[in-house]
Specification:
The protein is α+β, with helices and mostly antiparallel strands and about 200 residues long. It has helices spanning about 10-15, 45-50, 50-60, 65-95, 135-140, 165-175, 190-205, and strands at about 30-35, 95-100, 105-110, 115-120, 125-130, 145-150, 155-160.
Length: about 200
């Protein structure tokens, strides 16, 4: 009897395989959670891109005799220029993702159009997952830092959107996969300084 080839597999077998969400995903690997950084990482590109419409209407502002066609034409060209300037920042945010599967934690970093790096870490190597929200800006806008302690070193992820929610989800997945990891509450910068001052007073006495 001839051996079955992959083409001979039934449709039900194909459906039972996990759906692939990224290029480097293994055939037996299932994606459990995906998260991005906070959109605030795009602010530099957004601010510079907003100068595009201003540059576009400058000719009509300097010479009002050019009329409305020059004003609206320059505005449209300026908006297009602004979008072009903003595009690399959006691409870097949208395609830079953190993926948690039933086997690995994967960090995909996209910088511009032509630079992409991928790093992965086995779930069993993660020892603890902590988060930190420090300062007024992070508290008001809802982002912070995730810190993972692993057997190969510490992994720090800055500007994570809703870090408390992300930490809770990561710990839930680790427990689900049989990995024991610890967690600590968010570190407040003010309380941290107070603790250091208390230690100094104790040493002096």
């Amino acid at each position: 009897m001839a051996a079955k080839t992959p083409d001979d597999e039934s449709p039900s077998a194909e459906k039972s395989r996990p759906q692939k969400y990224f290029e480097d995903q293994f055939d037996d690997e299932e994606v459990l959670y995906v998260f991005h950084k906070h959109p605030i990482v795009m602010r530099k590109g957004l601010i510079i891109g907003m100068l595009g419409p201003v540059v576009g209407i400058l000719p009509a502002a300097i010479k009002p005799d050019l009329g409305f066609p020059a004003f609206f034409g320059g505005l449209a060209a300026g908006c297009l220029l602004g979008l072009i300037i903003f595009a690399p920042s959006w691409i870097g945010w949208h395609f830079s993702v953190f993926i948690v599967t039933d086997q690995r934690f994967i960090q995909i970093t996209q910088k511009g159009l032509f630079h992409r790096s991928v790093a992965d870490l086995g779930l069993s190597q993660i020892q603890s997952v902590n988060y930190e929200v420090s300062g007024l800006e992070e508290t008001m806008l809802g982002f912070g830092t995730i810190r993972m302690q692993t057997y190969v070193g510490d992994l720090t992820i800055h500007k994570v959107h809703r870090p408390a929610k992300v930490q809770k989800k990561l710990l839930s997945i680790l427990r689900q996969e049989g990995v024991t990891a610890t967690s600590y509450p968010a570190v407040n910068q003010q309380s941290k300084h107070t603790h250091e001052e208390t230690e100094e007073i104790t040493q002096e006495t």
